[in-house]
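Justification of computing resources. Each target in the renewal requires a structure prediction run like the one illustrated here; the chain below, 326 residues long, is used simply to show the kind of job we budget for.
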Amino acid sequence: MTDRTPWGLLLLVVVLLAVLCGLSLVAGKVWIPWDAWFSHDLRWAIIAELRLPRTILAVFVGASLAMCGAAFQGYTRNPMADPGILGVSSSASFGAVLTLYMGMGASSVWLLATGGMLGALIGTTLLILMSGATSSVLTFLLAGLFLNTIASSLTALALNLAPTPWAVNEIVNWLLGSLADRSFDEVTFALPFMVIGMGILLFTGRTLDALTLGESTARSMGVHVNRARLLIVLGVGLAVGASVAVTGSIGFVGLFTPHMVRPFVGSRPSATLIPSALVGAVIVLAADIAVRVFPSTVELKLGVAMAILGGPFFLARLMNVRRTVA
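Resulting structure tokens:
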């Protein structure tokens, strides 16, 4: 394992991402030939109005979730940590579900996305308040687990008490996670928050490296641990909140992507942030293309596809930990 940046490998990932972006614009139930790009073919509207915003969201959602996973694993020094453990994803889901429950989310993209984003920000604030200003990583994790449990329970309660079967159907479809039928309205809303959130996380890279030596050692090195935690929570809250607000729940990306890049970039958390973002973008975009071309009458939900991919990985990690302990 090395801590040197494998620029050649990163360039390969960038090229792969560019190829997938091009494929994403033409692939689907209706395949659009390349000559349609340079003519007055009416199918160009499918690219411009449906597939281009979907591609942009897939890239940035994958990058956001993966970078948040890398940052969170670096901060907690727990290789099984995931942004969902913070409770931010569940809080965002509850905020969006609440708008659907009240019959407002279906009528306006902005209301649904705003509900999800407000849920994420409120969840982030509660996480900071519950964990305390001088708490340990363990207390921070426990606070996140508690918030995750409460938000998930409230989401289930809203689903249980939904006033109409139509509301139940909307909530379930949204919770499954998808990029279908997304427009530039969602891109305009979510993209700034995701970019700002990832920028904040990049700013914490050296602090995350210091925290690998332990909080006491990091403090002795002059690291402001409390400020670093605030920045990490804020960055994760913005990036994950914006992602969940426009796509629904898409799990496992933040869990397994950092593990995929560590054998190539090393164990330093700062070295995994950008590579994780690039690989996460590739994974989500590739999965979104796969669900579009999957031969079925109904498009497979992206959140379901990611769960199918992530489940075996989680089991493999569990078996590896068991062998290590034994």
